[in-house]
User: Fold this.
Amino acid sequence: MKTCLQDLAAFEGPPLFASAVAVGRPNLPDKASLFARFEDMLRSRWLTNHGPAVREFEERVGEHLGVAHAIACANATVGLQLVARALDLQGEVIVPSFTFIGTAHALDWMGLRPVFCDIDPQTHCIDPSQIASLITPDTSAILAVHLWGRPCAIEELARIAAHHGLRLVFDAAHAFGCSYNKTPLGGFGNAEVFSFHATKVINAFEGGIVATNDGALADRVRRMRNYGFDDMGVVVCPGTNAKLSEGHACMGLASLEILGRVIDRNFENYRAYQNLLRNIPGIQLMTYHVAERHHHHYVVIEINEALFGLHRDVLESILTAEGILARRYFHPGCHRTEPYCSPPHTQRTLRHTEDLADRVLCLPTGMQINPDEIATIVDLIRFCFENAAPIRDRMGLRSSAVG
Ligand code: T4K
Assistant:
């Protein structure tokens, strides 16, 4: 516990966590289960090219999502690219700027132009009311993101897409294990793309799933992921190598077994943050619809500098010095990142995106951390609030506090 300024590791004190706690620390499966799967894989000498582990992974994920087709691929970025190609997207695609840069890059890499849309400041997801003004004769699709696993305004987006004859794709990289109107995310729009990267709620080291109920689209994605080969081994279209290996699928399968445990721990952690952060002025914790399934994998706070006394970046640097590796996802917003902040991309002011990108901080959760350690983190945040003025003085910062 910190009692005076000198106790802060940012100044002279020892860090609270000798071994850092980090946003994105992977949740690890049961070793025995993983190693047994590796043994089977090695014994069979079947290492890639849609072997038994990948087939089982696709089956299990498909069951979780309740979709007809779950197609495993190397990662979600390449999954988005496969979908873009399989849907024959052209020209412009409307996408939120407040997302991981990979969402925008997946489009750019396919020769498509991302057109950035602002977000709803409550949900952090694309604001449907801003989409119509961005549609041009060159628009072919909307790529919406279920940020933090929070579902987009799916019905409104579907209405807009249908009205304008646009394709609707969801970047569901964050959203495995989350629901919308009590239905698992996965079957909405033309396709949804999930990530199983190491930093996700469960992981396959790297990995992605394209989920869809459209059989013809699924066939095209399957062929394109494997150089355009069809089931008979004949090349019928252009393709790439976007396959998931058997080793990755083993990790994905073993991780799936712990999904319930991870979600339970995340929820316990989330409740601890919720109870403890409640009375700290200027800190607002993102909330989720209680009737929906959610993984609580992202503990997202918004910092109001005027009320808290310190800017988000100052708090982040204090936390980092203490061994608490919080993250400023998704600063500064794709539209303010190269190549999208330079011509020929149209420069737009996205008020809510820019405001949030300056105020959002994700805090550590997952199997690496428990509610006692969360109490330590929140005590530190409270200490920063209570000592904001002397911290600013010591750092030579000016005040923007109100009152
Ligand atoms: N769409 C959205 C909305 C996304 O968020 C992402 C990916 C994608 C699409 C694309 O999905 P994939 O193609 O990746 O399947 C991470 C991930 O690389 C990326 O997958 C993820 N989103 C993005 C939000 O975050 P970083 O920059 O946070 O990773 P890194 O290496 O800084 O790690 C974060 C923390 O986790 C560090 O403190 C260390 C810790 N860590 C990380 C890894 C990889 C570990 O302890 N062990 C590890 O193995 O990007």
Notes: The two ends are 29 Å apart (CA to CA). Residues 259-277 form the longest helix (19 residues). The chain has two domains: 5-25+259-326+364-395, 31-257.
